[in-house]
Amino acid sequence: MIKEIAQHRSHRRFRSDAIPEDVMREMLEAAVRASNTGNMQVYSIVVTSDKELLQRLAPCHFNQPAAQAPAIITFCADVRRFSRWCELRGAIPEYNNFVWFLGAMTDAVLASQNLALQAEAHGLGICYLGTTFYNAPEISEILKLPQGVIPVMAVSCGYPATEVPLTERLPLEAVVHRDVYRDPTDGEIEAFWAAREASAETAELLKANDLPSLARIFTERRYKGEDNRAFSRKYFDELVEKGFFNH
Q: Based on CB atoms within 10 Å of each CB, which residue in 32, 111, 120, 170 is the most buried?
């Protein structure tokens, strides 16, 4: 396995050192080599390293430690640039709809993974910021994203301040299906999560949250139903605002 994949870990605390421009350029060149829809590259990448803008972005990511990095790189679904090129050539683009949002989102996330691997190859640490979905309107305003452009993922990046351990992953049997999907039994699901539930990290989380199971930490602390619904409505409204539901 490629070393950067095998050793990947999420870093949430960074030194203040800036990322050298030649290193950043290599990361971005790696990003744009990713697979994409029809070689149309319906995505854009916004690299933010200006301290004032980083301070404005941090609350959008709940001021978590990972958002205090020397660079936040925001990947956007972008049908605007390609549509404008079509219009300049006398073609009629019809990409301002949901299926093309999904395609552009896929392109953006694939590009982000290439960038992350290249960053790690240079000794940098990264952390994916899932909060990008939660506060897309605010991020759009700060980054001045126009119609047809919406943030889908952000990656904080910098030189790690501390070493962090590898995180647990479910066994292959939990996520890989051969030929067709096979719904696991209750006993198999229990076995898939057994190692995670028995870990020292989980024991600490249960104590800190005063809850009896890891599952309830997810449902009652990290990703609550009321929050899921509220952020879903907020992101959907931003999709409408950005024109992805015109057709």
A: 111
- Reduced to 3 states (helix: H, G, I; strand: E, B; else coil), residue 75 is strand
Whether the predicted model's global pTM rises above the 0.85 cut: yes
Mean pLDDT across the stretch 204-216? 96
Assigned token pair, 201: 């990290």
Q: How many CB atoms lie within 10 A of CB 59?
A: 13
Instruction: Enumerate long-range contacts of 243-246, CB under 8 Å, 24 or more apart.
Output: 243/96, 243/147, 243/148, 244/77, 244/79, 244/96, 244/97, 244/98, 244/100, 244/101, 244/148, 244/150, 245/97, 245/98, 246/96, 246/97
Beta bridge partners of 72: 48, 156
The residue among 76, 111, 109, 82 whose CA lies nearest residue 95 is 82
Helices 225-241 and 136-143: angle between axes, nearest 10 degrees: 40
Domains identified in the chain and CATH numbers:
3-164+225-241 (3.40.109.10), 172-222 (no CATH)
- Strand order across the beta sheet in which 149-158 lies: 43-48, 71-78, 149-158, 125-129
Cβ 93 vs Cβ 83: under 8 Å: yes
Q: How far apart are CA 30 and CA 238, in angstroms?
A: 29
* Residues near 228 by beta carbon (within 8 Å), at least 6 away in sequence: none
